[in-house]
Design a protein that fits this description.
InterPro entries: His_Pase_clade-2, His_PPase_superfam
Shape: globular
Largest sheet: 3 strands, parallel
Radius of gyration: 22 Å
GO cellular component, one term: fungal-type cell wall
Keywords: Hydrolase
Strand content: 5-15%
Organism: Aspergillus brasiliensis
Order of helices and strands: HHHEHEHHHHHE
Protein name: Acid phosphatase pho5
Strand order of the largest sheet: 2-1-3
Number of domains: 2
């Protein structure tokens, strides 16, 4: 299930470093970035909020998980057995567990644990789980250590593409600001600005960062994100098939076992 979450630590560090550098100039901003003169970051308590499920705004992760459960119940409730507990699996991550709990509340009702409608099984994300895991990206050794084709290849491909589309944006913003103290923006700083559009929208419902960029800028950002996922865990990664096989194998075994295995399973 897709989760609307706060930035992870690495993303947040980039956001805050950029904002700190801008504010340290002590000069009012002009042009597209003038909103920063009266803007505050999406979290006042980073240590508490980062990497957590969002809880505010129309796109709150808690709300979306609950509403997904409600919609699922309306469409497929007749497939859920009434005489057996339904199993839900979640990896050992606070936001994933919380997502599963809100989904279950929407699907079964807020008392689902108390009345025994379902069981939530939490699977550790530790390396020693090997193939018995929901998070093979944390347990596949070759995927982790292969610097050329493993986990980090997605970011490498994104970095190359950033060099093709971001310099023109950085130059445009610098000309608008006419502030020599800024000295320019790096590729990752501009990318951080684009990230903040999405993160702020999930928390507050909208974001002035979104208006800083053109439609073409957003198409390039989208393609950049596609590159990350294609080469990190998609067809562009040689280890993706082996890691995805875990879900395929588990699903195949359930189908082979037939109705006695149960009629509904959820992995969140």
């Amino acid at each position: 299930m897709r989760q609307d979450i706060q930035p992870d630590l690495q993303e947040a560090v980039g956001h805050l470093a950029l904002l700190d550098r801008i504010y340290k100039t002590g000069l009012p901003l002009n042009g597209s970035l003038s909103f920063l003169n009266n803007w505050t970051y999406i979290s006042s308590n980073p240590e508490r909020d980062f990497e957590q499920l969002t809880t505010t705004g129309p796109y709150a992760g808690t709300r979306q998980a609950f509403e997904t459960g409600v919609r699922f119940a309306a469409r497929y409730g007749h497939l859920i057995p009434s005489n057996a507990k339904t199993k839900l699996w979640a990896s050992d991550s606070e936001r994933v567990i919380e997502t599963a709990q809100h989904f279950a509340s929407g699907l079964f009702g807020s008392d689902w644990e108390k009345v025994g409608r379902a069981i939530l099984e939490i699977i550790p994300e530790t390396f020693d789980r090997r193939a018995d895991t929901l998070t093979p990206g944390d347990t596949c050794l070759k995927y982790i250590v292969d610097e050329d084709r493993g986990h980090d290849n997605g970011i490498k491909m994104l970095t190359l593409f950033q060099q093709a589309y971001i310099p023109a944006i950085a130059e445009r913003l610098l000309v608008e600001e006419d502030n020599r103290e800024l000295e320019g923006f790096t590729d990752w700083e501009v990318f951080s600005m684009q990230e903040m559009c999405g993160f702020e929208t999930t928390v507050r419902g909208s974001s002035p960062w979104c208006d800083v960029f053109t439609r073409e800028d957003w198409k390039n950002f989208e393609y950049g994100r596609d590159l990350v996922h294609y080469y990190r865990g998609g067809p562009g990664n040689p280890y993706a098939g082996a890691m995805g096989w875990l879900w395929l194998n588990a699903t195949t075994n359930l189908l082979r076992e037939g109705p006695k295995a149960g009629s509904m399973f959820f992995s969140l």
